[in-house]
Amino acid sequence: MMNIAELAGRDSHSRRLFMQQAAQFSLGVSLTAALPSMARAQAGTADTGKAKNLIYIYLSGGMTHLDTFDPKDSKGVMLGDDPISTNVDGMRFGSQLVNLAKHADKMAVINSMSSQNGAHEQGQYEMRTAYEKLATIVHPTMGPFLEEMIGKRDSILPDSVVVGQSTSNAGYLNPSRSPLPIADPNGGVPNSSLLTDDTRFERRMEIANKLGKQFVSKYDYSGAKSYVEYYNQATTLLKSTELDAFDISGESNREAYGDTRLGQGCLLARRLIENGVRTVEVISGGWDMHVGIDTAIAEKGQELDMALSTLLEDLESRGLLDSTLVAVGTEFGRTPNINMNGGRDHFPVAYSTVLAGGGIKGGQVYGATNKEGTKVASDPVRPRDFIATIGHGMGIDLEAEIFSPNGRPFKFGRGGTPVTKLFG
Amino acid sequence: MKLFSLTRASASLLYGTAIMATLSLSIGRADARTWTSVADGRTLEATFISLEGDTINLKLANGNDVAVPKSRLIPADGEAADRFAVLGDDSRVKAAANNIDALIAGTLKKNDVAKFNAPLPDDLFARRVYLDIIGRVPTREEFQRFAENARPDKREALIDELLMHPGYASHMFNYFADMYRLIGKYAPQGIRSEPYIQWWKEQLVDNKSYKQIVTDMITAEGNLGHNPASGFLLRDAGMEFDAFSNFSQVFLGIDISCAQCHDHPFEDWTQMDFYRMAAFFGNTQRTTGGYGMSAATLPDAPDGWEEEFTAYAKANGVPIDNRQMSQRFTYYVRALGWNLTDNDALEMKLPHDFRGGGGKPDQVVKPRTLVGDSAKTGGMTLRQGLAEWMTAPENPRFATVIANRMWDRAFGKGLVEPVHDFSDEQIEEAMHADVLKYASNMMRGVDYDLREFMRILYNTKVYQTMATAVEPTSAKPYLFTGPVLRRMRAEQAWDSLMLLAAGPDIDQRKGRDGSFLRAVLNVNFEEETVEQVFAKYKAYEAEYRDLGAGVVTDMNSISPSQPDLPRIGQMEMARAAEMIQPAPAASLLDTFGQSDREVTDAHNFDGSVPQVLALMNGDITERLTGSSSKIVLELESLDAPEDKVQAVFFTVLSRYPDPEERQLGLKMLEDYGDDGIRDLTWALLNSPEFLFVQ
């Protein structure tokens, strides 16, 4: 088996050819599609963020806010352990977050998130797109949306990657904007070594393309057409040395991130950002703690603690923290009362999210819940406000509209109000 | 036959127009068929009654019965008798199919559309029905047998043959596994639900009435060993309201989930409606069998049983005091207690933050149905009452929902969409409202026999047309001039690749079987001694293979009846339905969008870069196009290069190459020999056409 990337590295002529192709296709995106549909707001002005990259850590299942970023003094609410103090006066975390406690000065915690969605799918959808899940349209997640607004970067690598998920889509945007899904962060890009030598591959691909074109000329379906696009993208990717960006096997701090999907996913995210990917979503499950939350949070809390604290350190030491916005989101919080199964149930009434890096002023807590954690007491933040805050951090004009193929207007953050106080 | 009365009665109710009145006349009676003598070509008009050995019993128009030996009739008649013996006579099927065609044609005419899409040629027909009915492409031999068959009844014969094929239930299972969110392991309790999965397969293999399947699921009691159908309600233990939202979507086609927290913003459903309907499960107790350090809950067992059983186990060598070492024992006891009962001490209460009208927070709610007449619960349990109400003829939604879903399966688009959430107005105003009503009545007419229902759809002319060339948009209702182009389901792609790699043997391979787990969990606490139960535990323990620290809660390994299947990479070479449900993330099935079974109908049909990379460079493709490629080896018997090229097209795309493609293939063969054949195979696999059902 032969990897074209190896050839490409050795032969400057073919390498240049590949780069030309890349410019033409840049992962399958045609030149017109590569142009931004909307101008980015003037970067560097006082009222927009300065972040260039985004890592969105999504904790699927509904992170218990009370046992992580919004601990309470009430014994009836807490599991047993006392909250711990952090390196910022007045900021306290759940007892599992011992390492993160040393990085509170980099973090802005929002403790007044509130949504209307008590179901996972709907909640996750809104926390990743700012829009409600409807049966009539699919909204893009932030990666494709940012690419649509800012334009594809001049790189063979995709503009956005989603780690921990094996499928993805670009919603109503051109399918070429779909994030590249990497199900297993340790697996790299699966199936990225050719079965045959280069010439034979070309010869095979030529026939396949011919048949493919014939097929899509018979059927005018976006789904069928997108496959032609995906074959273009895959071919370009195979020819690039940038594939190495997906390989974390040589990273020295793998252990520090934790031997978990979340930890290794965060490490991959950092590596991809370093190599020019703009947006990486890291999806990690296991937070739906209806049953036996004491044992569950011990495991997942530590997982989050190691992954996020190491990510922040790593980005900082590489000088990437200022340009990379790190966000932690989830679909809802969990009930203050412990249920009959020793777990906490869904609680969209109040929950927490975290922002760090990318111009965020660390060491602050925004909003609050009441003493028992049963409702938001001040400064409520809706999912759309949270997404708008991220958009603001990324320098997006939140008033600019983009349009779906059937002409419906959409805004990054769905017209939500960014929490500008979080930025320094 | 029920079909007779119901369909005819409803047809005359529904269709006032002259054309429908005439059509409805032909629907009820099983029509006579022409039977032909093999000796002299003479014919006989008679209705099929039964097949006994090699004797076909027929009824003549004058009412007399005749018995005709198969050998006296032409082969086509003998084969028809074989099919009818299993599936029943097909004259009603044809009549119903004609009616559907007429209804659609009528609507097309009203909309100034002249006719259906062009008729589907034989090759495309073969590929489509193989994929639609048994979930995989035909083998080259199967394809050729059909393509080269000149009999006029070959299409209906193939449809019947495929409906009797084991692949039918396997492919149907994939659909219901998505709709009912079937998973092999219920996290976080770590309980394997293979008995429930196995139960689903059995229902489909036996072609049980859908109404019965649903009734059995709703009314089940006990644990997975007592009654595996209990897996349906146990699926959402701890998330009862989510369970109810799913319930409503799946059975009634109403997504009422928003009314859980507030009155529905667009529909009439109030928050009170939600809880009244959910109250049918108000006394349903799902025990989770204990978790963490807590003791198991065994609602069926006499007081003190668990202590007695534990003491017995300890006396017989189970290291009870060591939590790590006694884990298997703990899992077993918990699985016993994973149970469904009716507990009349339980009531449904409104939530503490209830804000809708008609009730106050924490108030007890009485069950009331969402639509139609109210359920009668006298003399039966709440759940029995609910099941009766739901499946009663007075509640049309149940039949409409499943009829529309089956229509969607055949045509790639529902008559009303989305299939899990549509209003009564949408039903009335649908482009083909008459077809929807007809299909709904037809579903009841065939008594929820899904195989018979699908048999009718596949026999319509409108199904047997080319896929519509332009994708329908949401801007304009679809006219149904034919099926739409569909990407294969992940399971269809996988099963087809498996077929290419391993041959039709794949249809016979069995994977996990839930019967072992079912047997060891089927404990009668009143009658069995602890010694007898302990023997079941020991059987369980013996089959439990430790998979290592990371997966100790995984009972995945308890499948002694699971044969060691050949593998490609990590994946077992078996059909999707025989594998772990759902297939692991990053498996090829997952890559092609198999539902993660978290929510109903979550299958994803989008393409992606990893999908095409898998087809370009993956293990399967290596197997299919490498030096030991079965496909290529099988071509050795063919001499003529033309035949070889054609055979590759038959194998991968199940169609004839056009002249240009033929030339292209011949050139490959000429330039590169067998390598050229492999390249051609690769190219056909990697043309988007492979993944689509035309």
Give the helix/strand layout.
The complex is a heterodimer of chains A (424) and B (694).
Chain A: H1 4-10, H2 12-25, H3 31-34, E1 53-59, E2 84-85, E3 92-93, E4 107-113, H4 120-129, H5 142-150, E5 160-163, E6 180-182, H6 198-218, H7 222-238, H8 254-257, H9 261-274, E7 279-284, H10 293-317, E8 324-330, E9 333-334, E10 346-347, E11 351-357, E12 364-366, E13 368-369, E14 376-378, H11 383-393, E15 401-403, E16 409-411
Parallel strand pairs in A: 1-7, 1-8, 4-12, 5-6, 5-7
Antiparallel strand pairs in A: 2-3, 4-11, 8-11, 9-10, 13-14, 15-16
Helix pairs in contact in A: 1-2, 4-11, 6-7, 9-10
Chain B: H1 2-14, H2 18-25, E1 33-36, E2 43-52, E3 55-60, E4 65-69, H3 75-87, H4 91-110, H5 122-134, H6 140-147, H7 154-163, H8 166-179, E5 185-186, E6 191-192, H9 194-205, H10 210-219, E7 222-223, H11 231-234, H12 240-252, H13 271-278, E8 284-288, H14 305-315, H15 327-336, E9 338-342, H16 382-391, H17 396-411, H18 424-429, H19 433-445, H20 450-458, E10 486-487, H21 490-502, H22 515-521, H23 530-543, E11 567-568, E12 571-572, H24 588-591, H25 609-617, H26 619-625, H27 630-634, H28 641-653, H29 659-672, H30 674-685, E13 692-693
Antiparallel strand pairs in B: 1-2, 2-3, 3-4, 5-6, 7-9, 8-9, 10-13, 11-12
Helix pairs in contact in B: 1-2, 1-19, 3-7, 4-19, 4-20, 5-7, 8-9, 10-16, 14-23, 17-19, 17-20, 22-23, 25-26, 28-29, 28-30, 29-30
